[in-house]
Amino acid sequence: MKAALSTGRPAHAAVPANLLRQRGIEVTLYTSAYRSRFRNLDAAIHLRWLPQWVPMLHFATGVQLPRAFQRADTVLYDHLVALRMGTFDLFWGSATGSLASGRAARRRGAHFVLDRACPHVDVQQNLVRIECDRLGVAYDPEPAWFRDRQLAEYAEADTIVVPSRYSAISFAPEMQSKVIVAPLFGRVASRPIHAARPDRPFTFGMVGGNPVRKGFLYLLQAWEQIQLPRARLLLRCDAALGKFPALRDLLRRLPNVEVVGYLNDMQDFYRQCDAFVFPTVDDGFGMALLEAVAHGLPAITTTHCGAAELFQAGEDMLVIPPQDAAALATAMEEVYRSAELRERLRSRASKTLAGIESAGTYALYSQALDAMLDGLKR
After folding, report:
1. What is the CATH number of domain 202-358?
2. pTM of the full structure
3. Engineering a disulfide at 328: which of 33, 214, 222, 318 sits with its beta carbon 3.0 to 4.6 angstroms away?
């Protein structure tokens, strides 16, 4: 059996590529990234380099071109893969950049797998639109032609792989038969023992890159509501939160909030925390939640965090509705005031995580992959 994968940027493509190779499948990877940028990529995997100019420029210079250039570049790369592609039994393409290549693969008899880390584009864009309005910034929708491409990808694909049920249920009922859930979790590298520090304020930590999708607004609203004594909130974020009027106004009123920039070692951040809060509005998976649990932190998150599905809500962690500052405030106050609750959440979540890891690296992903391959053989 022969398989091809296509990804402009490395992302997590090495995971399915390696797992397919481990099953004796000959694997070719089409990409604009060099082999050194793929973590632990099997040496037996053939790499076929094709240019994708926008991410190459960003990687080399740090310059981020406007989204119109990014979208056009994605389409160009997709057509280059379609032109260069050989004959394969399985084609695994990254969402938004695999319509032409997926169609070309299917014409040659391949099974087309579309890898979509996020929910359906329309569901995600509706969330983004609501958040932009609440944050006080203009909503910049996907161009109609690019949305249409994504819808065509969904229709063309034989299988759509997503990392969580949260992403899976965003697709229409008539598409559910082609959607499979493959949690993208391997292993958390270190597991230091967290110890409370009575000499410092009780510290909630939060990690998030995109202010529109990560729920900073509801976290700051909740923080203002509860007014906890001798407590602080650490926000690990590289984005300029002050560019969002609603966040800027809240930050001005909340002196016990600190925004933390780039850190060489994220362990330094988790060591400063007594609890972790991840109020995401849209996260197909959310590795930060697992990192926090691995560092012994009791956690609060939302039903829109895919990684939370690996745990038991209410027992391993507190899981609340997204976009709900009042529910978040209640959960944070409960964690702050109850040492017994913190210890129960910490110990149960750590035990659950250890059980997942004991099954082997990427065991859940492997199980989903095997189920799909077994279906192809029938």
Report:
1. 3.40.50.2000
2. 0.93
3. 222
